[in-house]
Amino acid sequence: MVFWRGPAMVASVLSGLMLAACQSSAVNQISSIDTAQASSENISSLSSVISRNPQDPEAYNVRGSAYGRGGRYNEALKDFNTAIQLRPDYYQAYSNRALIQRSLGNQDAALADYNKAIQLNPSYDAAYIGRGNLYRRAGRTQDAFNDFQKAIQLDTTDPRAYHNRGLIYQLQGQHAYAIEDFSKAISLAPDAAEPYNGRGLSYLAMNDEDNAFTDFNMAIRLDDKIAESWANQALIYERRGDKAKAARAYSRAAQLDPNYKPATEGLARTRG
Predict the structure, then answer these.
(1) Cα distance between residue 136 and residue 131, in whole Å
(2) Are 97 and 78 in contact (CB under 8 A)?
(3) What angle, rounded to 10 degrees, do the helices at 125-137 and 107-120 form?
(4) What number of H helices and E strands is found in the chain?
(5) Angle at 71 between CA 251 and CA 61, to 5 degrees
(6) Residue 132 burial by CB count (10 A; 0-12/13-18/19+): exposed, middle or buried?
(7) What is the mean pLDDT of residues 200-220?
(8) Cα 170 to the chain's mean position, in Å?
(9) Binning pLDDT at 50, 70 and 90, where does residue 73 land?
(10) Which residues make Cβ contacts (< 8 Å) with residue 264, sequence separation at least 6?
(11) Domains along the sequence of the chain with CATH
(12) Which residues are the signal sequence here (predicted)?
């Protein structure tokens, strides 16, 4: 078995992949809007419900969620504003509006909404998870960890809490804890590719190449449109000295995301 010439290169590339993973979205945030059966397909029926009962805040909350999932953020924001006006203590609507504010780049407004949701209901796990992810992206790692930890202490069944806490453990080099969290996330969301990528990187950091390769391959089977999965698989091929397969996998990753540095840099190392 052929490996790279030195551990420094392995550590450098692996560090880059982990940093990219930590900076990427763990789980689709808009799809996690707290509502029942919200989708773009039922906007018309939800609008009919609102026209029959324009004072129903729940109807606006659900339609706002459907708009959010469809990328119609301004319309979603308007519906959440109306829901909150009709019911000022509607903590779910504050948390949902925070997601839209985040998507619009209004980070301060998003934080204010998460804080309000938590003030109204200190046991609302979704608000802690959302705020934690906001903190994590802002580099406030300890604040993010505390929020994910709080959600977990509240017995959340949301895989994002475990996945995101796992990313923080991973960033801190605590890979055994990270693997536990990624495994829990997988048990809660077995069809999600992201936790497999996270766990695979921690396996790789612990020199468990076989389990890492299994996880990266599973991530691709679950969703073959994620650049990170292909770059991770390519890294294993590269470690094993199979530059041809590594180049193909890096090429696929770069095709999916031309701005993903681990893919473009890996392709430059292995092609030809």
Answers:
(1) 9
(2) no
(3) 150
(4) 15, 0
(5) 140
(6) buried
(7) 97
(8) 15
(9) very high
(10) 250, 254, 258
(11) 29-122 (1.25.40.10)
(12) 1-26
pLDDT at 34 over 70: no
Cα separation, 260 vs 21, in Å, equals: 11
Contacts of 48 (CB under 8 A, 6+ apart): none
The residue type at 157: T
Q: What is the longest distance spanned by two Cα atoms in the chain?
A: 70
Q: What's the pLDDT tens digit per position in 143-162?
A: 999 999 999 999 999 999 99
- How many other CB atoms are found less than 10 A from the CB of residue 199? 29
Q: What is the length of the chain?
A: 272
Tokens read off for 145: 């960890």
CB 135 within 8 A of CB 143: yes
Question: Does residue 79 contact residue 61 with C-beta atoms inside 8 Å?
Answer: yes
How far is the first Cα of the chain from the last one, in angstroms, to the nearest whole number? 20
Alpha-carbon separation of residue 254 from 208, 225, 231 (angstroms):
26, 11, 8
Confidence at residue 3, expressed as pLDDT on a 0 to 100 scale? 23
* Residue type at 234 in one-letter notation: A
- Three-state DSSP string of 152-194: HHCCCCCHHHHHHHHHHHHHCCCHHHHHHHHHHHHHHCCCCCH
Phi, psi of 177, rounded to the nearest 5 degrees: -65, -40
What tokens does 25 get?
A: 């979205």
